[in-house]
Amino acid sequence: MSDVDKKTFQKQLMKCKWVSLAYVCNDLMEFPKDEAHRLKLQSSLSTRDVTKRMLVDVLVDWRCERILQEQFIWPQFKPKHKPPPSIPWLSLHDVHANYTQNNDRHTISPQYRLELLTELTKQLNLHSSLSIGHIHRFLTQPTDEANAKLRTNLHRMPFISLVFVCVDIDRLPVGRYGKAELVQALIEWVRVIL
């Protein structure tokens, strides 16, 4: 990437909101070098901990220096100096033959899912964006047999966030649905996957 491209990329990132940049940095586990160890140990991140400029610099450095440039298509990338990221539960989708053969939910093609998620993203505000992360965390926590705590936590989340996660994991109910149907679809996903 040329210096001009780096500057252009940097300007584009500076237009993004701090929370979006922080989310991507956290997802990639890339933080400012001087603060990396301390930030990785914290349970939350705030603007007092790291500035927008610091996040942008980290992402520019990551994109230009830390990954192989050829064949880069988000989210498929290969880091230069560490193993590629993995999604441990992703391989389980093929284990459950009935997972995608279900008449009570839409089976969405990858291309349509991407288009739908792009449209849903336009409707997200800060609260619903943060709630997507909370839902992901709730879905990966240990649960009891009745899933009572999970159900309660999911019902507290915004409708649009529940829809986003259901689309993302291919669990969008068929027909008219409300919060209860979305929560039930996510709980069934937890039972199948975990």
TrEMBL record:
- The protein's name is Uncharacterized protein
The organism's place on the tree of life at top rank:
Eukaryota
Please name the taxonomic classification of the source: Eukaryota, Fungi, Dikarya, Basidiomycota, Agaricomycotina
